[in-house]
Each structure stands twice: as C-alpha cells, then as structure tokens.
Amino acid sequence: MEDLPLAPRRPRDIDAELRALQDKARQLRTKQKAQLGELLLATGAADALDPDTLAGLLLHGLEQAKSNPQAAESWRQRGESFFRRERAGTSGAGDSKSAAASPRAARHNAEDAARPAAE
C-alpha cells in the first residue's frame, strides 16, 4: 500500500472563534441578568426593597459568606427550598401567586437572611 500525501490543514480562524466565544459570553451574561431580575420579582424583593437596599443586602451577604460559611450554607438551603416550593406551586392548579412571593414574605425573608449573619 502506498503512503498517500496528506492534504494541508486549513488554518484556524482564531479571530472568528474568539468573536464566537465573546458572543456566547455576552448571551450568557444577558441570560444571567434576566434570571436575576426574575429572581427579584419571584421573591418579591423588587417590590419590597429599593435598589440601594438590595445592593447593600447583597454586599453584606457576600461579606458574611466569606467570614461565616455556615450562614452561606443556611442561605443556600433556604434558596433551594424556595425553588422547590416554586416548582411545586406552578405544577398544581392552585393560586399562581404563592405566599413566598409576597412582598411581606420577602421582607421577612430578607430580615431572616441578615439575622444569622449578625449573630
């Protein structure tokens, strides 16, 4: 059997690949922003708290998560249960607005989230 000459490789268009990756990253950031907005609306935080308060709460939470990993784990568990309730609530034929999504509940939840961090 004869050795066939290999065809030369086509050069990669690195610039086009980089542009495609940048477009994908931009799409992911846009989707992330939309999901964060949906989260604020679903929890009722957007109605209950002004943007400055929300920003302060998030910054405080970041500081506390760094210094107190147990608090961050507790918040994660509460978030997980919130999403489980949301999924269970949307699959049923009951009221579409759950009690967890009310502004009063969101305010109460925000106060509870800050409380373990202060202890």
UniProtKB/TrEMBL annotation:
Q: Which InterPro entries match?
A: Conjugal_tfr_TraD_a-type
**Compositional bias ranges of the Low complexity kind:** 89-104
Q: Name the Pfam families for this protein.
A: TraD (PF06412)
Q: Where is the composition biased (Basic and acidic residues)?
A: 75-88, 108-119
Region Disordered, annotated ranges: 64-119
- Protein name (Swiss-Prot/TrEMBL): Conjugal transfer protein TraD
